[in-house]
Amino acid sequence: MVIKTADFVKSSGRWQDCPEPNIPEYAFIGRSNVGKSSLINAMMNRKDLAKTSQTPGKTQLINHFLVNENWYLTDLPGYGYAKVSKVQRKDFEKLITNYILNRRNLVNLFVLVDVRHTPQKIDLEFVQWCGESGIPFSIVFTKADKLKPNGVLKNVEDYKAELHKTWEDLPELYVTSAEKKEGGDEILGFIEKTNDFLTHNNVSFDE
Fold it and tell me: How far apart are CA 30 and CA 138, in angstroms?
């Protein structure tokens, strides 16, 4: 997929305030400091489309971007904030949960996981919740440039083994590096193929 345009649309503090759900939408989510904004910027060939920060938890609203004028890329708040109050954390979790469960044009949720770490309980629980809730999702491993190739392969296989304990069929898996701009084209290819399918089958998101 060639990215011709990528424009910020709006930030929303409630899922009800998101843009009209009339075109396909693909959302990105992960723990704080997983490299979500960097990956989005790399995929869109922009340096500052999604705001990056040295402080985890910068994204605290639902941020919508219109790509090629025909689909939304959504940057969601992270889960598992370490440096916010329990009340704030619950507010973020409620915002995320309500968006994911109620956004009818959400075609796929990309769950970002830091490939440098062994399978984390919070990531596994979130993935399990997506599956139980019937949410279409893919797993995106980030920061592959921080490890040697063998280390990346081992950690991905460890993660797959952990998932196989409760999943028979695994979701799509992508290995990415925002630094080296690797893996983003595969994600965009998936989005393009899915959008073509929706168009050819006249899928409508209207209620």
Answer: 12
